[in-house]
């Protein structure tokens, strides 16, 4: 049994959270205690994001706060892991001498040995490979950090796309899929533990299996998961419009466990901007995808993400995007402002858009989407649905989500009228009664007449 405890600060996307869960599981298997909070830990592990400027700043702030606890709290050492150190391994070690250990994306399984070395008084540890190549299969005793009856399953690692704005391929390496058997086994174990929503993630989920032999693809994986049987949800997150095939849409409609939900970032609508972004499929894929998805998968919920302020984006380009958003009526939408990232094509492009202009465009696009979202949410009033209970809230309410809502990003449903038998992970019928900001209100039970 280790004499030190480890507390986690996990930043960034769900893929990073899976990495944190894997490290926590490795530590527990090695009999290293997990602290209830970073402030109570002997060792603080900061799992960083290094995707864009804001994320990098957040990561650095978290590292500095953790290091400050070595002076004021029980903390005796700080470990930095994740994308930021993978991307800036040489620079960070020099810039942050107060950090005791750095580990890269391929070294997740080595976390317990790093903790042992810190216990023995060692510091200045750097275990980061130059290129990320591994793909990890979670241990059977995997720790879940979502705080609810849902879990993320990372079905692949890395990315082969060469989008001009994105640093991910240089950080996480080339695309590499897990086997169907390993994913199905993980899903089976999670369902056996009471998890009722399996959220499939990778940098481009719709490209799953293209690097494997034997015709492995996402539809084949979905069919294998559907054969597990029982009542649960499968949700697809982080796709690409050029890779949403008719076969995938038809398969989604045939498997009852698969949510009719697609998260597919389009980034932009104008062909000139998409061409500059080096987005596969270009404008044709972007404009074809929503109509085709709604035709082949009736009732599908569509989430997308847009990027404004890309170098060379003019008012005409932005107006085209805003018009496309209003025309297409996505159910959910997020907007990012372009961040010039080192070692990406876009960082050196001419005609950089002023930060203030990009921020105003983001606000304008979000305003257009808010009108759409409010109108869609209001139209649900009086309608019936089936929801997944997440946790008990205040004043007898429960927090829940529908198949049309992904974790963390699409709001919640606040349900009244549940009896004492209600529990997290249960599926219950509701009737929608109203809207509260980005959340919905509902009453348990489908009312008749």
What can you tell me about this protein's structure?
- With 449 residues, this protein is an alpha/beta fold.
- 34% of the residues lie in helices and 22% in strands.
- The chain has helices spanning 14-29, 53-72, 83-87, 89-95, 111-119, 168-172, 180-192, 218-226, 246-254, 271-277, 282-296, 315-328, 355-379; strands spanning 5-10, 33-34, 43-48, 77-82, 101-103, 125-127, 150-154, 156-157, 176-177, 197-201, 233-236, 258-263, 301-308, 332-337, 384-392, 398-402, 413-416, 427-436, 439-444.
- The strands form 4 sheets. It has a 6-stranded parallel sheet, with helices on both faces.
- Strand 18 and strand 19 (439-444) form a beta hairpin.
- Helix 12 packs parallel to helix 13.
- The radius of gyration is 22 Å and the shape is globular.
Give the arrangement of secondary structure elements:
Blueprint (H helix, E strand, L loop, with lengths): L4 E6 L3 H16 L3 E2 L8 E6 L4 H20 L4 E6 H5 L1 H7 L5 E3 L7 H9 L5 E3 L22 E5 L1 E2 L10 H5 L3 E2 L2 H13 L4 E5 L16 H9 L6 E4 L9 H9 L3 E6 L7 H7 L4 H15 L4 E8 L6 H14 L3 E6 L17 H25 L4 E9 L5 E5 L10 E4 L10 E10 L2 E6 L5
Parallel strand pairs: 1-2, 1-3, 3-4, 4-5, 5-6, 7-10, 10-11, 11-12, 12-13, 13-14, 17-19
Antiparallel strand pairs: 8-9, 15-16, 15-18, 16-17, 18-19
Helix pairs in contact: 7-8, 8-9, 12-13
